[in-house]
Amino acid sequence: MCGRFIQSTSGEMLAERFQLSTVPILTPRYNVAPSQSVLAIHQGESGQREAVALRWGLVPAWSPEPRTSYSTINARAETVADKPTYRHAFRRRRCLIPADGFYEWRKVGSRKQPYCIAPADGQPLAFAGLWERWERDGQILESCTILVTQANAVIAPIHDRMPVILDPQDEARWLDPAITDPAVLKPLLASCPPERLRLWPVGTAVNATRQDGPALMAAVTLPED
């Protein structure tokens, strides 16, 4: 799964990296958590890429409430095309979620050790995401989920799942609203090559959602098991 991630690249750099129509205004964040607002990118009606703020935790348009009784921060790549919660968004409302890294926890005895996983080349990653628009009685909520898939060789020693990290050459296809056939989209949802990522252990301060700042990414030395 993906339960925490980092969005720290400047708006100017994101606009260049993702060919955005306008430069987004954002504050660097190093511990983005579920239910919080995240920066996402989708293709607008004009055909241009737009940066938008979405709540992390997808609420389908048919939901009677602006929340769900189960976690929708992640959608499994293997079943996303068929699950009622996600299948409409999978065909019609796909997005990119820029990330400068994410965190995962490895169980060590009775404790969990956090790790930071980041792009090896230092360039922002693009998670495959879905978004939805919920509206009732004048209340509007736009929300998102991050697709997850089987872990690659870098992440497998600490966890069996990882976010779907799109190849830059596949990002345009993922965003294209004219593509609605799951058979065309599902091949994009494989785990990324391990050489694109690096990981290291970090301190437990990241466990608390109130904590933020680049110090959360600092490497620590682990005690011997």
Shape by Cα distribution: globular
Number of domains: 1
Count all strands and give the number.
Answer: 12
Which architecture name does CATH use?
A: Alpha-Beta Complex
Main sheet characteristics = 7 strands, mixed
Binned, the helix content reads: 10-25%
Poorly predicted runs:
none
CATH superfamily, please? SOS response associated peptidase-like
Instruction: Output the CATH class name.
Output: Alpha Beta
The proportion of residues in beta strands is 35-45%
Rg over CA atoms: 17 Å
In short:
The protein is 10% helix and 36% strand. It is mainly beta and 225 residues long. Strands 3, 4, 5, 6, 9, 10 and 11 form a seven-stranded mixed beta sheet that branches. A five-stranded antiparallel beta sheet has the order 2-1-7-8-12, with no helix packed on it.
Keywords:
225 residues; five-stranded antiparallel β-sheet; single chain; hypothetical protein yedk fold; mainly beta; seven-stranded mixed β-sheet
Task: Provide structural commentary.
- The chain is mainly beta.
- The chain has one domain (5-217): Alpha-Beta Complex (hypothetical protein yedk fold), CATH 3.90.1680.10.
- It has four helices and twelve strands; from the N terminus they run E-H-E-E-E-E-H-E-E-E-E-E-E-H-H-E.
- Strands 3, 4, 5, 6, 9, 10 and 11 form a seven-stranded mixed sheet that branches. Strands 2-1-7-8-12 form a five-stranded antiparallel sheet, with no helix packed on it.
- A hairpin with a 2-residue loop joins strand 7 and strand 8.
- The relative contact order is 0.19.
- The mean pLDDT is 95.
